[in-house]
Write a structure and sequence with these properties.
Blueprint: H1 3-19, H2 27-39
Length: 41
């Protein structure tokens, strides 16, 4: 995974964690989900 992609995932993940108390995401699950959305054709 590229550094830019890792950085963007980090930013989005942190923002979600801070703004939404109801979302209980694990970082690894979140990363897999985003990769699925990006790579799914």
């Amino acid at each position: 995974m590229s550094n830019k992609k890792k950085y963007m995932l980090e930013v989005i993940f942190n923002k979600l964690k801070k703004t939404s108390k109801n979302i209980n995401l694990e970082k690894e699950e979140f990363t897999k989900f985003i990769n699925f959305l990006i790579n799914d054709n």
